[in-house]
Amino acid sequence: MSCVQPLYSSTVCSSAQIQCSGAKFPCKLQRLFSMKGSLRRRNIGIEVPLSTGRTFMEHKVMDSRDTIPSAYSGTDVETSDAGETKQEKSETYSSNMTEAMGAVLTYRHEMGMNYNFVLPDLIVGSCLQNPGDVDRLKNIGIGTIFCLQQDPDLEYFGVDIGAIQRRADDFNELQHIRAEIRDFDAFDLRMRLPTVVGKLLKAVKRGYGITYVHCTAGLGRAPAVTSVRPCFPKLEAIKSATADMLTNASKQLVTLKWKKGNCSFVEVAGLDIGWGQRMPLAYDESQECWLLQRELPEGHYEYKYVVDGNWTINMDELVTSPNKDGHVNNYIEVKGELDVASRNLRQRLMQEDVDLTKEERQIIYERLEALGDA
Q1: What is the band of 373 on the pLDDT scale with cuts at 50, 70, 90?
Q2: What is the pLDDT of residue 139?
Q3: d(Cα 334, Cα 314) in Å, to the nearest integer?
Q4: Cβ–Cβ < 8 Å for 77, 191
Q5: Cβ neighbours of residue 76 under 8 Å, at least 6 residues apart?
Q6: Distance between CA atoms of 30 and 119, rounded to whole angstroms?
Q7: How many CB atoms within 10 Å of residue 96?
Q8: Using alpha carbons only, what angle is made at residue 359 by residues 202 and 26, rounded to the nearest 5 degrees?
Q9: How confident is the model over 348-359, as a mean pLDDT?
Q10: How far is 224 from 190, CA to CA, in rounded Å?
Q11: 45-47 and 289-296 as β-strands: parallel, antiparallel, unpaired?
Q12: What sign does the CA torsion over 227, 232, 113, 162 have?
């Protein structure tokens, strides 16, 4: 985990000028584009220096079991058995997150919320767990709760999102907004990111107060949408989303084929749906093979076939080199129909260290505003 450079993020600001690509960029945002930062893993902790000279405010941990003066404090009491169940779920989730994200990451749901101030009016952190957490956030000046979780994320840890939303409705000038992104899915992040950031931009511009952006652990989706904190967002997805907005790349139709042997059903995992899902291929009698046709935007996609429940690769298609665990996948490179200028721009944006120009930032800002109003 060497460098995190989200190319754009979207928190609104009062009156600020931020340093962008060596030139001051006046805007109505306090942070339209996240600043460069580097992350260096140190055992389980992460050291986070920011090139702007800013440092993170003190890392906060809010224990969902703390007693607070509200009608909901009684809901925070857990039995030891329930605590053990949460701990087991946290360990499983952390293991899945580490495998999916490619870095050693740990989330302890049983210890309550954790978060970082990345700006005076922007907090990035983990999920709310009960209505009492709404009170805790309101007490520190939160005006917008922006939730990136999907229903399966909430159900896994037994979070009652309805109760949380109802408690948020009890307060004046407190908005609870959901903008879902699939967990551990870089492609879904790429495709949804512009719309989600546009929605966040519109929400924050209402000016209710501090904005709290969260996913489940606060280590992947939330930092990808907002800014840099100890995390591991999918940089390729963020860069691809930025390039998509600036080049208007079209989708291309790709075809996958499985010709081998007799089998009852063939599926594919990975590709653009993530490794946690599978997509069936249809048998074509005229070609005597299993087929899948799918439109994909430009990018590199890895996948594997699941034949009668067995994971395998197709040696008739492109195959990756073995990874650190010795595993190989099929892959496909999709090239969009771009003119020379757009092609060169996309190649530049996908490089490891890249700064957007003032004009490119303005284009993205305008498109985010349009998406937020859509």
Answers
A1: confident
A2: 94
A3: 18
A4: no
A5: 64, 65, 66, 67, 130, 132
A6: 9
A7: 14
A8: 60
A9: 90
A10: 10
A11: unpaired
A12: positive
- Strands 175-178 and 142-147 come out as parallel
Per-residue pLDDT tens digits for 241-293: 999 999 977 789 999 999 977 899 999 999 988 887 899 999 999 999 999 99
pLDDT (0 to 100) of residue 327: 87
Q: Read off the pLDDT band of 83 (50, 70, 90).
A: low
Under the phi-then-psi rule, with left for phi > 0, alpha for psi from -120 to 50, and beta for the rest, what region is 251? beta
Q: For the residues 147-174, what does the mean pLDDT come to?
A: 96
Tokens representing residue 266 in the block: 């063939």
Contact 243, 116 (CB under 8 A): no
Q: HEC profile for 352-371? A: CCCCCCHHHHHHHHHHHHHH
Would you mind telling me the total number of residues written for the chain in this entry?
Answer: 374
- CA–CA distance, 119 with 227 (Å, rounded to integer): 9
One-letter-per-residue 3-state SS of 228-277: CCCCCCCHHHHHHHHHHHHHCCCCEEEEEEECCCCCCCEEEEECCCEEEE
Please state, in angstroms and as integers, the Cα–Cα distance from residue 322 to each residue in 82, 198, 209, 227, 328, following that order: 41, 39, 49, 33, 5
Tokens, residue 18: 């931020």
Q: Is 147 a catalytic residue?
A: no
From the list 127, 215, 263, 289, the catalytic residue is 215
pLDDT tens-digit map of 103-120: 888 999 999 999 999 889
Residue indicated by tokens 């967990």: 183
**Angle (CA) 364 212 234, round 5°:** 55
Angle between helix axes 186-205 and 358-373 (nearest 10 degrees) is 80
Q: Helical H runs in the chain? A: 80-101, 131-139, 151-156, 161-169, 186-205, 221-225, 235-247, 340-349, 358-373
Q: Exposed (0-12), middle (13-18) or buried (19+): which is 45, by Cβ within 10 Å? A: exposed
Task: Say if residue 37's pLDDT is above 90.
Answer: no
| pLDDT above 70 (res 19) | no
Q: Which two tokens stand for residue 358?
A: 């003032």
Nearest 5°: the CA angle 349, 214, 65 is 155
The whole-model pTM stands at: 0.65
